[in-house]
Amino acid sequence: MWLGAHLGIAGGLAEAVHDGKKIGCESLQIFSKSPQMWSGPSIAPAAAEEFRAAVRDDGIRATAVHHGYLANLASPKPPMLKRSRAAFLDEMRRADLLGVDGLIFHPGAHLGSGVESGIATIAESLSLALEALPESRVRILLENAAGQGTTLGSKFEELAGVLARVDRKDRLGVTLDTCHLFAAGFDFRTESGYGELMDQVERVLGRETVRAFHLNDAKAPLGSHLDRHENIGKGEIGLEGFRHHVTDPRWNVTPGYLETPLDNDGYRRYAADLRTLRGLLGPAPTPATTRRMARRSASRDPTVK
Question: What is the pLDDT of the chain when averaged over all its residues?
Fold first, then answer.
């Protein structure tokens, strides 16, 4: 997995890339503007070129823009939906200008209109965006949700329902957030639990649709539906859940972006989390793996009955 983090752009777009490189990022996610604003200042072409050059020069393997928090592409309210769709188009243009690989967004909430209605509205929103910007090269990535309220996407079937309704499937994909998965009730802390999760990914979504991960531990218990991120190994998921992800060869060329808590000491916590994740790449086996190896050894030993 290409390990990285979400970096701030207050110091400049290119500086975010350099900051990521300094703490060991192989991948990088940013906001292209404040996530609490419907629109932001235009990105100067020179600044976009500096960003792209920094990505190339610093050897960053994958990049993404995370959409802001205000838009709701599932809204049943026409004024909100119209504004959300306009904001999404603007974000697509900004992501294209920056040359990032993916635009990650929260699918939205149906606000009482019902799951099927919400899924259909999201799909229509995406179809309209793709029709409006047919030359766009950025891949649109739906992020799974923790399951609070009427938010959509905590179930793989809901994400698959959106994907199935959009013709340009080559332009779409999914980002899986580990905290959201855990909050939605997926327990992948053991080898068998991780295997069951991946079986569901393969069966419902298809492995090829998963284009990125958000690597976040969880403050709240399994199935809480609370989106509360924690630093790696400090929360309810623990280290083994992340070991399964980062050592899975299926994700060798997939970016994993940290969105874990920071403090007033810059990106010190990100750097620590990246070191922790890379430490999991070592040979230390899980207890389940140890037991399985012991059983295999015993089965080959003719003295064992």
Answer: 93
Q: Say what percent of the chain tops pLDDT 70.
A: 92
Listed residue (118, 64, 53) closest to 91, CA to CA: 64
List the one residue out of 117, 114, 211 whose CA is nearest residue 162: 117
Contacts of residue 211, Cβ cutoff 8 Å, sequence gap at least 6: 101, 102, 139, 141, 173, 174, 175, 254
Residue type at 90 in one-letter notation = D
Residue 304: pLDDT band with limits 50, 70, 90 = very low
Rg for the chain (alpha carbons), in Å?
20
Per-residue pLDDT tens for 182-208? 999 999 999 999 999 999 999 999 999
- Classify domain 2-300 by CATH architecture: Alpha-Beta Barrel (3.20)
How far is 241 from 196, CA to CA, in rounded Å? 13
Residue type, 71: A
Residues 41-48: contacts with CB within 8 Å, 24+ apart? 43/13, 43/94, 43/97, 43/98, 45/97, 47/12, 47/13, 47/14, 48/13, 48/97, 48/98, 48/99
DSSP type of residue 207: G
Domain boundaries, the chain: 2-300
Tokens of 302: 């003719």
Q: Is the pLDDT of residue 302 over 80?
A: no
- Cα-based distances in Å from 268 to 147, 215, 275: 30, 16, 11
Angle at 68 between CA 34 and CA 188, to 5 degrees: 125
Closest listed residue to residue 10, CA positions, set 38, 55, 41: 41
pTM above 0.85, yes or no: yes
Which burial class, exposed, middle or buried, applies to 44 when counting CB atoms under 10 A from its CB (0-12, 13-18, 19+)? exposed
CB within 8 Å of 143: residues ≥ 6 apart = 104, 105, 106, 107, 153, 174, 175, 176, 177, 180, 214
Element (H, E) at 255: strand 255-258
Q: Tell me, rounded to whole angstroms, the distance of Cα 236 from its chain centroid.
A: 19
